[in-house]
Every structure is written in structure tokens, then in C-alpha cells.
Specification:
The complex is a heterodimer of chains A (336) and B (312).
Chain A (H helix, E strand, L loop, with lengths): L1 H28 L4 H6 L6 H10 L6 H13 L13 H36 L4 H14 L3 H15 L22 H8 L4 H36 L2 H8 L4 H38 L5 H10 L3 H29 L1 H6 L1
Helix pairs in contact in A: 1-4, 1-13, 5-6, 5-9, 5-11, 6-9, 7-9, 7-11, 8-9, 9-11, 10-11, 11-12, 11-13, 12-13
Chain B lengths: L28 H9 L3 H18 L1 H4 L37 H36 L3 H15 L2 H12 L3 H28 L2 H8 L4 H37 L11 H8 L7 H29 L7
Helix pairs in contact in B: 2-4, 2-11, 4-5, 4-7, 4-9, 4-11, 5-7, 6-7, 7-9, 9-10, 9-11, 10-11
The chains are: A mainly alpha (336), B mainly alpha (312).
Chain lengths: 336, 312
Amino acid sequence: MIRFLLIKTGLLIPTFLGVTLIAFIFIRLLPGDPIELLAGERGVDPERHARLMAEMGFDRPYWEQYLGYIGDVLQGDLGRSIVTRQPVLSEFLTLFPATIELSVCAILFAVTLGLPLGMLAALRRGSTLDHGVMAVTLTGYSMPIFWWGLLLIILFSGILGWTPVSGRISLLYFFPPVTGFMLIDSWLSGQSGAFASAVNHLILPTIVLGTIPLAVIARQTRSAMLEVLSEDYVRTARAKGLPPWRVVGVHALRNALIPVVTTIGLQVGTLLAGAILTETIFSWPGVGKWLIDSISRRDYAAVQGGLLLIASVVMVVNLIVDLLYGLINPRIRHRG
Amino acid sequence: MATTTPHMPDTSRPPVLDAAELAGAPPHPLVEFWHYFRQNHGAVAGLVIVVLLIVVAVLADVVAPHAPYVQDRGAFLVPPVWQEGGRWDYLLGTDATGRDILSRLIHGARYSLFIGFVVITLSLTVGIAVGLVAGFFQGWPDTLIMRLMDVLLAVPSLLLALVVVAILGPGLFNAVFAVALVYLPHYVRLTRAAAMGELSKEYVIGSRVAGAGLARLMFRTVLPNCMPPLIVQATLGFSSAVLDMAALGFLGMGAQPPIPEWGTMLADAREFILRAWWVVTFPGLAILITVLAINLMGDGLRDVLDPKLKRS
């Protein structure tokens, strides 16, 4: 297992270096030179420009600059935002919990609905229920989620007035952030109604972000389940006279879960891309909205850092999924 | 062979008779394809909708009741015809500047379908070329290409497209390029895997022994046998391309207003969501129907062309 872990981690190094290279090239591919970009709209006089070029190392050869950049990155220095003057890393870390909170809720929503739906569809194969699940999930899979979010706002916020339109919690409540996760912080604050308000703000974004993963998970569960149900060991279990719930829940489900776990892991990239759209629609103060705002403010230092950090998060999560996969499926692990 | 032509003495030699003259000869591949494709009702429905959309897009100038850019100063935010205050000359209502929504949707079909087509053609062609190179030249070219694709895959698709658009500047063509780049790794990986599977087969070795050059081996011998999964991926990729382009338009990074691209229309409509539901609802519905139809069609294609992937 340790060998497996080391190999899998080692394979990440070239990918990570590649991503740093992309982030490094990104700033240099933008029209205009880096100092002008970093100065933003204020501009700099030529003398100061030359001094800054030398100071920040932009006059040195590219490979030297790149090595310097990697050195900085490994020390956690991702540069400073042009707009706020804050270190990019600390900005990202302040906003990231909001994105994690939303993503975790979305994936929980997708799994708790998707798994049973997929299983039911597989068990009642060919029934109206099965066709219904397949039709609904295909629609969910094809959904432009930015539009889906707007529709839900029209219905639940506009017509019914049940949920708020934007933000993480009502402005009535204020308490210092402890964990950065609004659900936990509002609970800890002890103010009555704070937790309910946080939940209320989470519902629509969770549904919107969870829709595509839900569809993918339900479909994957269904097909994995169908495959497993025709295996010999399931027939054996049935023949032994085990109760149906045991055959399905223990013998079939555990084997069907293997591809499903991978699918859930692979949804993380989709989830972060979806977070950009979802957070924009609901003014959710997470890294997705921050990235879009940074792009439109031409805050390229922030975009560069954000790109690197998000890609790293995706890589780490994929690694964890790979390891989990090896853990539940020894065949993969021993093949190396 | 032996059962249909018992009088033939040597079955190992190629048949003397033309295949089509034999009873029970296999049908033309296209006929066979249609036979299986048509059994999937969803796929046929998807195909019909896609064909309709293409017809509407091509004939947009004839079909659309109004010009997509003309503003009617007497008709701001007119609701759809079935709602109170609706007008028959604006079936789906008008937007905040008095433009007919139906006409803009019809013209928007041009953009969405054409964009999807260009994106897929671009990334499919480049992806096939790069994938074949990776598959044929094991060793460092292969390693280099595949690591590069891993890097592209590590960045969430929409984020990568946004970054490319940030470099090139917002706009329709830059967005097309960005999305094409995002989809490239899928085609490279598929082509490489399929090519490597074919390379060790006897017909390729035979062709090589017969003196076929590299280009011939790549494009005439191996590529046709790699096509089925690529066609399936391209169809499903088409729908993702339409979605991603609409998302870029929605974020203000794709087609720029007043182009009637569906995503861009939605971005324009956002501020009216609580006042005029129709401005928001119809462009999104158009995106959903298009993507859904292409996905239905793609599912059907996969079941026929790539039975290994069949979702049973």
C-alpha cells in the first residue's frame, strides 16, 4: 500500500510542475508587460518601470524567472493581489471555506439522492420508475446550471418568497468567523435564528451545484448495479436464500460502489467549475466568484494564484480518490 | 460462409461470388446502423430535434418574424402572447430594449450550433493528429504529450477556458478557441488508446510489411478503426461545447452583446429575473433543449457504434 501511495504521489509532481508552468506563462502571455499589468490603471513612469523590472527579476532569462517562481510557490508566496494588495494565498484561504461548504453540501445532496435513485432504477429495470429516473437524470446532466439557478430564484425567492436571493447569511446576524464554515459558525454563535438563516441561504446554491453530480451519480449507480446484479456471486447469494435486502445492500452494492466512488471523485473538477457559475448567480463569497471578479478587474496576480491553487486542489482530491480506490479494490493496488 | 455456399470447395480462399449476390449478404453498414439506431426512440427524437434546429438556424432570416437587432420602442418587456398584455406579433415577448425574443432565439441557434460545430471540428482534428503521434511514437513524444494533457485535465474546464479568454480577450472567436483547447485532451487520449490497441493487430503489421508509409499507416490503416469511440465522444462533446460556450457568454467572456447568443442573452436578462420571467426562461430553455437533444442522439450513437460502453 505504501508503494502504491508513493507511486501515485510521485506521478503528481510532473503534473504540478506543468500547472506552475501554465500559471507562469499565463502572466507573460497577457498583452502588455508584467509591470504594467501589475501596476494596473495607475501606470508607472519609465524610470520606475525599469527599476521595478530589475527588482522583480523580469529582466532575467525566462528559465531563471521560472525557477524563482517555483521557489516562491513552494514557500507559499503566490504574489499579491493588484487590487487589494493582500497576499493571494491568504485571500484564497479566507474565501475557500465558503466554496468547500457549498461543494460538500452539493455532493452530499447528490449522493443521498443519486445513490438510491440509481439503485431503484436498476432494481426496477424497464419500469416507469426506471424510465422516469433516466429521463430526469439526462435532463439534469444537460442542464445549463446558471439558468437553473435563475429559475429557482424566480420560483422560490420571487414567487414563493421562501429563500433569500444571495449571500451566506442574513445581515441581521453578525459574529466573528471561527472556522469559516457558516453552518458551524452560526451554530457556535448561539444567536437564535442564525443557523436557520445559514441553512436557508445554502439550499438553492446546493441544489444548483449538486444537479449535474446528482445526474451523473444516479446514472453511474444504475449501470454499475445492473452489471453487478447479473454476476454469479449475486445469483449464489440469492440461491442461498438470503433476504433480498441483504443481497442488494451487501453483496451487490459493495461491488457496485467501486466505480461510483471514482465517479464521485471525478466530479470535483466539475464541482469547482460549477462553483464559478453558482457563486456568481447567488453572490456566494467563495473562490469561484473571486476568480470571476478578479478576471473582470484584470487582477491577474490573483487569477494566476487562483489557477494554481484550484488545479492543486483538483490534483490532491484525485489522488485521494485514487488511493481510496486502491483501498477498496485490492486488484488495482497490487498491479501498482 | 460454409453454410451459404456449400459447393465451394476451398473456404479459405476469398469467395468467387460477389458478396451482395449471396442470399443473406450483410446489409450496407449504414443500413445496419440505422436499423439499430432507430430502435432507440430517445435517440431518434434527439436526431429529429437536432435536424429541426439546423433547419431553423439555416433559414433563420426567413423563419424569424423580426430582425434580431431591431428595437421596438413601443414594446419594452412585452410578455408572451398567452399572458395578459401579450401581443400576437411578439409570440414569446420582448426584452428590455424591445427586441423580439423568439427571433433572437432563432438567430441564436445559428451561433450555438455553429460554435459547437467549430469547437468540435477544431479539437477533434488536432486531437486525432496529436493522439496518433503519441500512439505511434512511444517513448518521449508520447510521455511529453500525455503529461501535457494531464496538466490541461487538472484545471477545471470552465476555469481553463476563462484563463485562455483572459489572455486573448473576451469575444466569440477567442472563446471558441479556448473551449476547443479545453476539450483537446479527451480526443488525444481516446485516439492514443485506440491507436495503441490497433497497432499490435495483424492487419497493421501486414500493411507495414507490405511497405505502407507512416502517413498511410496512421490515417488510412489505423485511424478508420479508431473512429467509433471518437464519433461518440465528439457528439457528446458537442453538447458540452454548447453548454460551456453559453456559460462563457453568461459570464460576459464569450459572445458580446448585442449578438443573440443564448448565454449572452441570459446575462443581459439577469437583472429582470423578478420582473420579467420570460426574458430569462426562454434562452435557457433553448440551451437545455439543444443540449438534451444532442445528448439523446449521442447516447443512441454510442449504443450502436461502441457497444462496449453501452449502459445496458
